[in-house]
Amino acid sequence: MPTIQQENGRRSIKGLPPRWGVRAYSELSRARAGVSIGEMPPAYTQLAALLDEVTAAPLPIDATDAQLCVLAERSANECASMATIIHDPKALRARLAWMVTNRGISPPQITDDRQFMLRCLDAAWWRRNLRRVHGRTFEHAAIRLGFVSIRAGAYASNETVQRRMAQVQRNAKMLRAVTMQNEHGHEFTLAELAAKGVGNKAIRRGELMLRMAGCEDVATERGDVGVFVTLTCPSKYHAVLAKSGTINPNYNGATPREAQGYLTDVWKCIRAKNHRDGLHPYGFRIAEPHHDGCPHWHLLLFIAPDQVAQLCANMRAYALAEDGDEAGARKNRIKIVRIEAEKGTAAGYIAKYVGKNIDGEHVGQHLDADGNVIGADLVGDAVIAPSQRVEAWAAAWGIRQFQAVGQPPVTVWRELRRVGAEHVADAPEHVRQAWAACQRVTETDPETGEVTTLQAASFGEYIRAQGGVNMGRLYRIGVAERVELKEGRYGLAPRPVYLGVYSKDTPEAVYASTRYEWKRAAVAPAIGRPWTGVNNCTGPDPEHVAGWEAFAPDPVPVAPHSDAEWYANFDFSYFDTDECRAHYKGGW
After folding, report:
1. Is 496 a residue whose pLDDT tops 80?
2. DSSP for 470-501?
3. Domain boundaries in the chain?
C-alpha cells in the first residue's frame, strides 16, 4: 500500500514529487469512498497498486538532479573498488555489467575491455545515463498517473519540459563561453558555429521544406501523385482519453518509445508487402505526439496514379492487423487523403507539421491529432510554447521526428555544399550537376546590406543528378571518408573523417571539401582589479618593494562557497540504510 506522509499540513503520497503526491492522495481518498475497514472498492485497489508500482522504480522518481549526481559518484566509486578486488578482465567485466544493469542502465556496448571498464569507473558516464534512465522513468510515471494530457500538460509533463529548458539554457551558456580558433586565426564561439548548421531551428526547417519541395518537383516530372497518411497506434497504447481527460482503463502501460516501436514494425510490414507488389513510394515521415505523449505518424508519399489503390489497401491491412475490430479503429487508426494539386502543393500541405514540430513558425493555431487547440501555457515563470513541449517529448524519449523515404542521402547534399567550384571543374557531368544543385547564389547590397537570392538551391535537381528516387545503394555519388584512431575520453577509438565526395563510377577520384581544424582559443589569465575605480589601501613604499612584487597583480577575490543547496537536496536517510552500513563496514 502507498505510504502517506504529511508536510506543512498537506497530506501526500511518499515517493512522488510534491505536486503529484498531493493530487494522488486526493484521488486515493476519493476512490476509497468513505470505506475505512474491510474490503476496499476496486477503484481504490487499482490506484493503490499503480502507486505502489510507480514508487517502487529502481531510481526513485522524486530524486533530484543533485541526488542523481551523488549516486553517479557513489556508483563509479563502487566500480573502482571492485576493480581493486577482481583482476581477471572477463570476470571484472561481467561483475561491472551486473552492477550497471542493477541500476537500470544498459552496459556499454563496446568490445574493448579497458574502455568498458573506464566507462564504468567514470562518474560523468554514470551521471549521463542515470539522467536519461531517470528522465524516462519519471515521464512514464507522469503518463500513467495522468499528468500528460490536454488538461494537465500536453505532450510532456511540466517537470520534463522545465528540465529540458534548463538543459538547453545550460548548453547555450556553455556554447557562448567557449571560443574556437581555426588554422587561419579566425575565432568564433561554439554558439556562432552551431548557428550556421542544422542545429539552428530556422535552418533545419528551411532545409526540410527545400527537400520536400524538391521531392514534389521530381514527383510532378514523373507524373506521380501524393497521398497524405496519418498512422496511429491502437487505443491500448493511449494512456489518457482525449475527450474526458481520464485514464484509459484499457491502457497497456506502454511507453511512447515502445509505441514508436509498434509503428516502426507496422511500417516494416507495409514496406515488405509493397516490395512484393512492386510498389515503391517515396516522400517523408514525421513522428509527433498525441496529447498524452503516444506518438503517431504523418507520411507524405508519392506514387504512380495506378498504384495508389494498392498502396492504400496495403497500409490499411497492416494498420488494422492488431485490434482492428475495436470501436473506432477503421475510422481513426489510419487516415489517407489524396492531395489535390488545385488545393495547393504537397510541401505547403505538410509545412504546418514541420513548423509545429521544430519552432512553431508559420503554424497558426497549434492543433493536436484530435483537433484540440494546444496553446502556450505558463509553467513556473516561463511561457512554454507547444513546439517546446514537442521538442522536450522527442528529447526525453529519443524519438526521431523526421525521416526521408526513398530519397538519396542528405549527407552527400551537405558535403557538396562544402566543395569548392575548382574541385569539381573536371568532374563527371552528374557530379557537377549535383554540385550546382546544392549551391545558393546570393548578392548583398553594399548600401542597405539586403541579401538577394540570385539562384536558389534545388533538391529536385540533386535527386535527378543522383539517379532518381528509390535507388538504394545505386545512387551515383557518395561521401568519401577514412577511418582514423582518435583519442577520446576513454582511449583511442575509430572515427570517420569526411574528405569530400566521389562518383561511384570512379571511386579513386575524390572531390575534396573545405574543412577547418578547430582548437579551443587560448584564454588570457584574469588580472586582479580592485572592486572600485581606485585603490584606497595604503601601499608599501615603492623603494622598498622587490621588483617582481611591484608588477605582480592583486589577488582575485573569491566568492564564499555555499553548500546549502547540496545539503538541502541530499537524502540523508541513506546513511541509516543497511546498504550504507554494508558499504562503509569497518569504520568511516
Report:
1. yes
2. S-GGG-SEEEEEEEEEEEETTEEEEEEEEEEE
3. 65-139, 201-405+561-585, 410-520
